[in-house]
């Protein structure tokens, strides 16, 4: 095995006096490609660079999807009489994936983009949608082999033999799998090994979402092990639906990739959805929280700009999306507290630590026939002015729902239990609808089935010693409906809190919501928002769900009458 920890001359076979590679200017809509030369395991790395390749007429090539790892470029790769410094993880990948008998043509950002030329980076990043979607294959490099990787890669085909086809994996339940005793129980070495694959740094990287979602075909490499991406994704999708919550976060990336991949390789996606997902992933440059998602949008409404500060990028992104989409859906991404304290309250801070798993509001494409409501956010003003309606004020709040706090679900029940409307109605139905934010469960077709699932979940709570729900430890749970309800409500409620309004409405809102905040509809957005009154203006706290305020996805007409509309100033 080649030792990548040796001194540079021993690793690469390149004299220290070799000149650094000189990048030529690259034309618009052109890229560079590398030809990775053949070599045995212990040979030094050498490449050739093909410059100014027109994307329209580019030869067949592959694109690499990987993590930079340590950003220090401590390895050298030979390029004729010159050399290029690369990171250790990339060097390891190139050694592993090069062919022994013929060169491999690749696009790799670290080499094919002149990272020292900011203007070039702006243009090349804007092309990445085309680069990855046009590649014949995307090579996914997870890193060097770990002790249990052979077991994990061997387990995947065994697991998939018990599963429906990939197209049917999402939403699969334990029902019908009861008799399949050959599937190992959770906690067995095979499951642990597979979960460890998805806990690798690769799956926490923002850029992989578009790189893999846009791929025609993708192959996963982990040390010497290889597997089609679709197979690994199917196994992960099954885990997400079936395993306890302690493994759930490890699979966020796969879930996002599959979601965007299903939408016709990203062509049907809304950038707002992609930007909300970016909260959960890492990138070295905070601006890439936005730029890494641009390729997933229906059309490129924003251009990457690495000359701008992080704050300027986030502010401009929010402004442009409000104007380009002609709606305020981007406000559903707002969360607190923010890392950039100087950002206006209505601008998402994609660096913030966010615990919520999904948006409450559904993103929409531009609606040319939607009712016109005045929205103003000028380039030189950090104030958002929008037509809106204040429809309630928050009177009480419950504790914030966290995934691992024992008994919190019981306390939420106590918050609601016994509460009745002035006319004598119970909160029960509105409560379970609020816990799901108006959504249904996989496999349910009517309200009676949803009510039954809620009651099954309540029964599970009542039977647990000390109260509180505990996830199952095997694939065949004693109460499938209750478990599925808990999974869905946790995904909806984690990082949020229940509240009631002075008008006796039950709602689900942001963790920062407090007594005295107001619930408002803004413009034509069907999602109610929580605002905090300040002197002559409001602060945006976040999105909410109030079941009694909406009907078939739209605000109730009596809440948004023309004569009650007012200008709301948000800073």
Automatic annotation (TrEMBL):
Name the Pfam families on file: HET (PF06985), Het-6_barrel (PF26639)
What the entry lists under InterPro entries is as follows:
HET, HetReg/Transcr_Mod
Any idea where the Heterokaryon incompatibility domain is?
A: 61-211
Q: Which residues cross the membrane?
A: none
What is the protein name given in its UniProt record?
A: Heterokaryon incompatibility domain-containing protein
Source organism of the structure = Imshaugia aleurites
